[in-house]
Amino acid sequence: QATEALKSIARRQDLKAHVERTPALNGLLRRAAARYVAGATREEGIEAARRLLAKGYAVSLEYIGENTTDAAECEAAAGEMAALVGELGELGITARVSFDLSHIGLAADDGLAYEQLLRLTRHARELGIEPFVSMEESAKTGRILDVYKRAAISDSGIGITLQAHLNRTPGDLAGLEGIGGPIRIVKGAYQEPAEVAIGRSEALNERYLQLVEAALAQGRRVSVATHDEALIEAVIARGWASHGVEFELLYGIRPDLAGKLKASGYPVRVYVTYGEEWYLYLCHRIAEFPPNLYRALADVVGE
Ligand code: FAD
């Protein structure tokens, strides 16, 4: 409940407007967000990516946003993503660009999401950038997979994220046999009804490992996107880390663990976010791990 409460606070436009109108509050929250978000602008996102690349990490970039219902705003979001892809290509930066389909059309109309996805992925592929679809709440999973499959059926370069906590996911992965490209496996960030998902548990970690194994058996590259050290250890113990698996962690979360994995010679990718919606992203990170609230307060008072 606390998780959903924080996420709904994040979505309240009146609160967001208040934060934007109040420079002191805006400044404080921006300082707290700086741990998790590279900045408000594309330049800041790319700069963070370059710093990570120089240290030997691979990178993903996301322009933050979701649930955009206005078609013009969807076009604007896709435009920003295309500009990001173009700039990365120009700079010769190899990266993955991740996005929510509901940011570029799915919340308005599936056809729009499909067209934008196709346009974006063609552009990205021409420039050697890897397009990657994020996964959203379970009410949208089927539609996201349908749009993804339509675009990926003839392009094995488009990746997709699957959530281990959803009971449907093993079947969804089986249904992707022969379609599309790399798979990112996450536990799942959304609070879901008990009928459709399982919570954080041994059973979830077990299912997560089965999904990694099944995706590898399909011949795919797999991103193990988690900060759960026990799970990462289990992947390493099975010998998968040298066979098509990379570890992927969110910017600002467990950088110590990312560094340790890299120092041990494992491929590690860091997921960098940027955009004016940094406030939404900060609330999400606190909602999913409430001790981050104390960290945010410490960041604000400059500890
Ligand atoms: P958990 O069991 O939740 O956490 C394990 C440990 O990791 C915790 O005990 C803590 O030490 C640390 N930790 C976890 N979260 C935090 C945090 N916020 N701050 C500080 N420490 C933390 N979810 C989706 O639903 N759709 C997506 O498309 C998606 N994309 C993702 C992409 C990447 C690269 C990553 C890493 C995550 C993504 N997620 C996505 C989020 C994911 O579903 C989880 O909510 C998130 O990764 C936390 O779960 P966990 O696997 O780290 O394990």
Describe, in plain words, how this protein is organized in 3D.
- There is one protein chain.
- By secondary structure, the protein is of the alpha/beta class.
- It folds into two domains: about 70 residues, no CATH class; about 220 residues, TIM Barrel, CATH 3.20.20.
- An eight-stranded parallel beta barrel has the order 1-2-3-4-5-6-7-8, surrounded by six helices.
- α10 links the parallel β6 and β7.
- The radius of gyration is 18 Å and the shape is globular.
- Flavin-adenine dinucleotide binds next to β4, β7 and α12.
Mind sketching the topology for me?
Layout: H1 2-11, H2 13-21, H3 23-33, H4 42-54, E1 58-63, H5 71-91, E2 96-99, H6 110-126, E3 130-133, H7 138-152, E4 159-163, H8 169-175, E5 183-186, H9 202-217, E6 222-224, H10 229-237, E7 245-250, H11 255-263, E8 268-274, H12 278-288, H13 292-301
Parallel strand pairs: 1-2, 1-8, 2-3, 3-4, 4-5, 5-6, 6-7, 7-8
Bound molecules: flavin-adenine dinucleotide (FAD).
Flavin-adenine dinucleotide (FAD) binds at residues 134-135, 161, 163, 186-190, 200, 225-228, 248-250, 253-254, 271, 285, 288-289, 292.
How would you concisely characterize the structure shown here?
The chain contains 13 helices and 8 strands.
Whole-number total of structural domains: 2
CATH topology of the largest domain: TIM Barrel
CATH class of the largest domain: Alpha Beta
- The number of distinct β-strands equals 8
For the structure shown, list the relevant keywords.
13 helices, 2 domains, 303 residues, binds flavin-adenine dinucleotide, TIM Barrel, eight-stranded parallel barrel, alpha/beta, 52% helix, 13% strand
